[in-house]
Specification:
The protein has about 350 residues and is an alpha/beta fold. Helices cover about 50% and strands about 15% of the residues.
Length: about 350
């Protein structure tokens, strides 16, 4: 549980001026390392006491969030699915930001610097929600291999893990789904000694129903990975191929939608996955389709009911948290509340 131990160390340092380090004869020691090495028993006792306080704080924070809007009753239904083992997390780019990876909009602005696409041209495309077209426009402007190299340089290297995504191995088994190109989830599970049995790329996973049926531990990278163009879905042409011509991704989405999904770190705005889910609900009907949930930030001035109506078309029901509050803290609090009384995430 290095994520929580790291937060414990931060709290120790915060109690002192500066960073809490001690300098002796030119050598620098952190207060937590001195305590851990000189008095390991006392260190563990202090850490366990801190864990109890931290859990209480997180549960109080979650209750504050659940008192907003219609969150609490919806969360209760989500927790029923979790207790029954019927919940699959669907992880977006927002959960990798704490580890230093850019969100999609930031990545596109970074990518523009390597193209002849003007700022105004990109802004027009993004304001219109044409993300796929924006990627395609810039990929077409780059020489062969350059786009792949930039994508791999951005998402294909390991940065230090950080943020509440490190709680996932203790909360979610056996399946996790992501559209991210980075390996944050894979490394989180490996660091917790809970590695996935297999990693499936969305377009190459016709045996996904077998994995789901047997509840085998699998990570589904729906849109591929950073260091391989095979099965990758990012440009307009790639989306049109895999969501349209051969419909392979549409089939995968239909398969995973047989379980209850919890979207975390996903914007759920103009998105092919969301569009495919809407079409599925339109075909099956709201009463026959499985209900899904999302932890979503509510922006200042945003029309909450209009946003709710948009998501309901895909049978996705949001549990809101204020956008102006700390994203990681809100997500961590809701994850603690989800686990409370079901699994002991501290017993590791």
């Amino acid at each position: 549980m290095e994520f929580l131990r790291g937060k414990f160390h931060q709290d120790i340092s915060a109690e002192f001026e500066g960073n809490g380090d001690i300098n002796i004869e030119g050598y620098t020691f952190s207060r937590e390392s001195i305590l851990e090495e000189m008095e390991p028993t006392g260190y563990e006792e202090a850490f366990n006491e801190w864990l109890e306080r931290h859990q209480e704080e997180m549960l109080r924070k979650a209750d504050q969030l659940l008192d907003l809007h219609d969150n609490r009753l919806r969360f209760n239904k989500l927790k029923e699915a979790y207790k029954n083992g019927a919940l699959i997390p669907f992880v977006g780019a927002g959960m990798s930001k704490s580890s230093g990876y850019p969100g999609w909009t930031s990545f596109l602005w970074q990518l523009r610097n390597e193209t002849r696409v003007t700022q105004e041209e990109l802004k027009v495309l993004l304001d219109a929600g044409k993300y796929e077209e924006a990627v395609q426009r810039m990929a077409d402007d780059m020489p062969a291999g350059s786009f792949d190299e930039t994508l791999e340089n951005t998402f294909g290297h390991d940065l230090d893990l950080d943020g509440p995504i490190q709680l996932f191995p203790f909360l979610f088994e056996p399946c996790v789904i992501t559209t991210n190109f980075d390996d944050v989830l894979k490394r989180c599970y490996e660091n917790a000694d809970k590695p996935f049995r297999d990693v499936l790329l969305g377009v190459d996973s016709p045996d996904l129903p077998r994995y789901l049926g047997r509840k085998e531990k699998v990570l589904v990278k729906l849109h591929g990975k950073a260091n391989s163009g095979r099965g990758r879905i990012l440009t307009l042409k790639e989306y049109q191929t895999h969501y349209g011509v051969d419909a392979s991704l549409t089939s995968r989405i239909e398969e995973v939608c047989e379980s209850t999904l919890l979207f975390i770190g996903c914007s759920l705005s103009i998105d092919r996955t969301l569009m495919a889910m809407r079409e599925l609900v339109a075909t099956k009907g709201h009463e026959s389709a499985v209900r899904h949930y999302a932890f979503l930030p509510l922006k200042i001035g945003e029309d909450r009911l209009a946003r709710r109506d948009q998501l309901a078309q895909a049978n996705i029901f949001p549990i809101w948290y204020p956008d102006e509050e700390d994203h990681d803290e809100c997500i961590e609090a809701l994850l603690h509340k989800l686990a409370d009384g079901v699994v002991d995430i501290y017993d590791h």
